[in-house]
């Protein structure tokens, strides 16, 4: 997923095959130049990245390593500097294996929380019902851009959470002052809606819809 900086003439492109983050600069007449690159750990598979709305911090999701790498963004040049070790997405009591992968990542509209999804995670011990399920990881974002995991929200019965979308800021008023996250199980054909606590960032499952065939993306309307 390509991510433009909110005000600098640069954008960032994760390259899963080469394990790099490419930074492109937009020049005169909309010309593009590969400004610089940032090598990620070999075999980590950078899939997506998310910027805070003020452009100060960026978070790279590694699909194959199943973790997030936090960066600080230079506000003059757009260059990146790593500010924290890679942070795992899967729950602390789940065992990492090559079958697990990561899929999606988003920063909340207020820039205070970070959300990412797991795929192919078997974490039956975490589910009250005993059903295996993938999870949505939740972190708080500190004033210095570092992240602290505060929750592994269970999508009860969902497997392969490829799609996850936060409700846009403009919807909050029409949704009774609430923010939401929708996520889908690609191989289990179901959709889950979580209410997002705007103060502490945690998620609460409020709706589940079966029979949504292989959900791969979502679009909020309103």
UniProtKB/TrEMBL annotation:
MF terms (GO), sorted A to Z: 6-phosphogluconolactonase activity
Entries under Gene3D superfamilies matching the protein: YVTN repeat-like/Quinoprotein amine dehydrogenase (2.130.10.10)
Top-level taxon of origin: Eukaryota
Pfam families attached to this UniProt entry: Lactonase
Family under the similarity heading: Belongs to the cycloisomerase 2 family.
Name of protein: 6-phosphogluconolactonase
Organism of origin: Cryptococcus amylolentus CBS 6273
């Amino acid at each position: 997923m390509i991510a433009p900086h909110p005000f600098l003439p640069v954008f960032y492109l994760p390259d899963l095959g080469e394990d790099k983050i490419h930074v492109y600069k937009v020049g005169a007449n909309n010309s593009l130049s590969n400004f610089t690159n940032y090598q990620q750990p070999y075999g980590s598979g950078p899939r997506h990245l998310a910027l805070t709305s003020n452009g100060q911090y960026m978070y790279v999701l590694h699909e194959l390593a199943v973790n997030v790498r936090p960066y600080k963004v230079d506000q003059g040049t757009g260059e990146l500097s790593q500010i924290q070790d890679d942070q795992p997405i899967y729950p602390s009591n789940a065992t990492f294996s090559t079958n697990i992968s990561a899929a999606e990542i988003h920063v909340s509209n207020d820039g205070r929380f970070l959300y990412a999804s797991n795929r192919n995670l078997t974490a039956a011990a975490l589910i009250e019902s005993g059903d295996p399920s993938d999870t949505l990881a939740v972190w708080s974002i500190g004033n210095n851009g570092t992240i602290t995991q505060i929750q592994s929200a269970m999508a009860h019965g969902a497997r392969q959470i490829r799609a996850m979308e936060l409700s846009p800021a403009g919807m909050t008023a029409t949704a009774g002052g609430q923010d939401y996250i929708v996520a889908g199980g690609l191989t289990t054909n179901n959709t889950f809606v979580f209410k997002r606590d705007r103060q502490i960032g945690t998620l609460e499952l409020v709706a589940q819809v079966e029979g949504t065939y292989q959900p791969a993306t979502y679009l909020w309307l309103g």
